[in-house]
Write the structure tokens for this entry.
Amino acid sequence: MLHATIVGTEPVAGSKPSPLVCAVGDLLLDLVVRPTQPLVHGGDVVARTHVGAGGQAANVAAWAAALGGRGRYLGKRAGDAAGALVAAELESHGVALVGPLVGGRTGVVVSLVDAAGERSMASDRGAAAELRPEEIDAGWLDGGDVLHVSGYALARTPVADAAERLAELARTGAITVSADVSAATLVDAAFRDRLDRLRPDLLFATEEERAALGGELGAPAWVLKRGQRGCTFSREDVTLDLPVEPGPVVDTTGAGDALAAGFLLGGTLEEAAARAIGAAARCVAQVGSMP
């Protein structure tokens, strides 16, 4: 069964619509754990926790909406209690949910955050990884300006095949295709082949992810994330380096997704890059990956 809900994302009649970012990949239950002291093997320590919607594709769509654009999540979702919770939260951000609603279970990602705000993750993709090409409808991309593909969606089949199909449809509709490598641990020969076939117009990666790809970001436009040393943005053979914005770092979960959403909303290179850096700073100053 296909399920599509649009809440607060349609332009006012007669107005110029804001950019619409369609993101394919995960919508997960995000559990962030911040221990107040080092973990003790076999023991118990006090921690602060946060539970809510997450997943790279969902995060990008939510941040796009929060930053003045429009967001649409494309993916398979489970109809369990966790699925209802995360869908409601994403809709509350004004994001449209498009794709099959099925039985099964919603995936969970656990982020363990250290005292410096850096996170390590363990991920269970759940139903989102089971999206199939034959379930795709070209109408999912109607009105879209960008199709953003999570690297997690390229790392497993059948969702990787579905992402490739969406990219084909995007190109027939002159929609920009962007991708995020997402994690160096995902990169193997099959992943690189998928990325080559995807032929993204824009690629996001960290320095570690670039190294895993062989040292090059083979896309016409790219964003290289350098952690506390800022980012390098490149488009139309123009390169711009920006430092991170000063401010508190509470939790880095979702910072790259916020940054991607800010850049995908467009404008001049300077405008897009500044918006991206500002969104990342806003994200790391809070607990959790959603706006």
The longest helix spans residues 269-284.
